[in-house]
Amino acid sequence: MWCVAEIDAEYIARTEDVLALYEKPYNPHEPVVCLDEKPVVLRAEVRHPQPARPGSIAKRDGEYKRRGTANVFCVVEAKAGRPFTRPTTNRSGAVFAKTIEQLARRYPHARTSHLVFDNLNTPAANRWRNTSVYRKQSRSGAALPSTELPSTAAGSIKPRWKSVCSPANALVHAESRT
Questions:
Q1: Residue 60 falls within a domain, yes or no?
Q2: What number of other Cβ atoms are within 10 A of residue 53's Cβ?
Q3: In a domain, 48, yes or no
Q4: For position 119, what pLDDT does the model report?
């Protein structure tokens, strides 16, 4: 809770919304999917590791050469036991939209899919506004409330996605709207 300025009624209500969603029984037509992201440092060995031999453990030097950074999107549908990871070179809005499209293809028969963002560093709403997916949806005249993720390009992906922000992320969303 280090990132929360104060625990007020809105924070508690959002916490209860997320917990209520997690308490729902498993329903394959309404999956609850959690998404998080992690930046990673790419490293290369400076010296070749030595394999284990009889009487000697494997040896690996702690020195490395930095080879840049990457991002890993981690998605979990806990009640179904389904993990999904997607390494990417960055975490731009377009890359985020592609990740959601790939995720949506995994749920072709879902009526409504609930996507929980767990402390995303960049507010998801801002990411969507910068993607062609969002612009195509808004040009079609469809309503784009902040709690629903738009369908992907030309309606090619059927499930309807509802986003649920973790309480700390909800505060970031509220600040970004002001």
A1: no
A2: 9
A3: no
A4: 52
Q: Is residue 63 part of a domain?
A: no
The domain total for the chain is 1
- Per-residue pLDDT for 106 more than 90? no
How would you list the strands of the sheet with 32-45, edge to edge?
Answer: 82-88, 64-77, 32-45, 112-117, 160-165, 148-149
- C-alpha dist (Å) from residue 54 to 51, 59, 61, 138: 10, 13, 20, 65
Prediction pTM value: 0.67
With H, G, I as helix, E, B as strand and everything else as coil, classify residue 28. coil
* Residue 139 within a domain: yes
Question: Which residue shows structure tokens 């409330």?
Answer: 145
* Cα 68–chain centre separation: 22
At residue 4, does pLDDT exceed 50? Answer: yes
The domain of 161 spans 9-39+72-177
Distance CA 1, CA 167 (A): 10
Burial of 150 (0-12, 13-18, 19+ CB in 10 A): buried
pLDDT over 70, % of the chain: 67
Amino acid at 96: F
Whole-number average pLDDT of the chain: 75
pLDDT-based confidence at residue 76 (cuts at 50, 70, 90): very high
